[in-house]
Structures are given as C-alpha cells and as structure tokens.
Amino acid sequence: MSARDGGAPRVVASEFMAPEGVARLEGVVDLVADATLVTDRARLLAAVADADALIVRDRTQVDVELLDAAPRLRCVGRLGVGTDNLDLATLEARDVTVHLATGANAVSVAEHVIGALLYLSRPSFATSARVIAGEWPRTELVGRELSGRTLGLLGFGATARAVAARAAALGMRIVTADPVVTDPGPGVTLLEPDALFAAADALSVHAPLLPSTRGMVDEVALAAMPAGALLVDTSRGGVVDHDAVLAALRSGRLAGAALDVHPVEPVDAATGARYADVPGLLLTPHLAGVTRESNVRISTLIADAVATTLGVA
Length: 313
Description:
This protein is α/β, with parallel strands linked by helices. The chain has 2 domains: 3-104 and 293-309, NAD(P)-binding Rossmann-like Domain (Rossmann fold, 3-Layer(aba) Sandwich); 106-283, Rossmann fold. 33% of the residues lie in helices and 16% in strands. The strands form 2 sheets. The chain has a 7-stranded parallel sheet, with helices on both faces. The two termini are 19 Å apart. The mean pLDDT is 96.
C-alpha cells in the first residue's frame, strides 16, 4: 500500500543496496529491496506501479517507459553520481526529486586511480607467476616513479580533487581542465583541454558523459600526450575512445591504460576479444567507486535522503 492510500510509503530498490542502507528504511517504509529487478524489466515495471520512491545504481534505466509505469513516484535515489541512466528532463517535468550520492565514493575512486597509476608504472607488480616459475626478470621490468610527473585531471569535481590530494602527496604536479571551474585552488593549474593533454604524463578522466564529452579522449588527444604516458578512466564509458586507446597501447604511444568503465556494460565475450593481448592494459568491471566502505556511505546517504523526501525520516 502506498503512502497516498494512507499506508507507509513504498520504496523499491532495484539494485544492490548495502544492509546498513536497507536497515535505515526498514520499519519506516514499505520496502521492496530486490537486486534482481534490474535484470527483469517486466517485474521491475510491475514493482514500481505503486512506488513512491525508486533506488537504483547505474544499470536500471529510469526512462519514460518506467516513469509511465510509476505514476506515484516522488523521488529517485541514485546509488552513485552518474546520471546517464536517468531521464532527467522527464523526471524534472514530472516533479520527481533526484538524489545523488555526491562525494560518497570519492575516496574509493581516488584510491583506485592512484593504485592503477602505481600498477601501470611498475610492471613488476604482475610478475608473481614468473617468479614462482623460477624466472628473475629484473632488468626487463624496471618501472618509473610517479614523483615529478604531471597528472592531468579531466574534470575537477569532488573525486578529482581527492585524486589530486593523493597524487600531490606522491610528488606529482597537478593540472586540470574543467569548464565550470575558475579557481582550482593552490597547487593545481587550470588549463584548456588541449593544453592538458599536451602536459599530462598521466591522465585521469573524471568527466560526465554528455554530448560535449562523448569521445573527448580520442586519437587526437592521445597523440598530443607525451610519449609513454598513462591513462586511467573511471568516468563513464563513451568519454574515452577505446579503439584509440588500444591502438596507442599497441604502438607504444601509451605505456599503460586502466579502463574501469566501458561503452557497453557488461562487456560481452565478443566485444571483450578486442582487448586480448594488448600490452599495458588493465581492465576492471566498473568497480573503482565500489568498496565496502563506500557501499555503506552511499546506501545510508541515499536511504536518508529518500526517507526525508517521503517525510518519514
């Protein structure tokens, strides 16, 4: 029964939500927490028919079809910060409040970026099997230090700022490009994108996927970077041209690339075959912002925001 029928508000969570977030809602709302709904569209549409709130991650498509099936919807909680799976214009037109977990996974993503840069800079991290087999490849696996190198941050929101603080502690120089930032603060130089690419010994991408950013890191951008540069993408699939990255890795123009986000997720076997045997490539399944700690922060933040909007906090 929905709050509009005199009962507790109904909240549907269609993707994984940490138990701590679930506990914040249990007892104050009529909660349907079923992470399998995201893979069963018909069941999802039926579940939201009398929902006052919907909680999603990045796979549930909150589009016109879903919103038509959910006429009572008052708010959507996004367990993350990206909005490319949300039809924001329609949500606004229907007066549905959207809650994002802004900043809640910044530490997790920042640590992933730094870890990826260290991994890509030191090929010795991937030699366990060879050492076990009796090899001793010291001379062929000499890496590079991050200290003294320039890190370019494409986008300078909360996550990029967390990366900047950690990279600066390692002795890196920090430059950024962001159209809405006028003063990035001490120790960070603001550049135009073209100048950023030319300066970046390592590039970390933190731009949202918009028409203006789709394919922004392309063959031209990669060619402008210093030879032997590194790339880490934890933003959204589509901002970085993966074909251009693979070509740059194969040619040696890029020394390494860590791709956490992909144009189509999950990557199927046929698509994944193109990544096989590419030197210097690290692929991860959109997990940069997902840690035990961030799951708790994100889930409790969104649970509290939804409860407040529904008037049961």
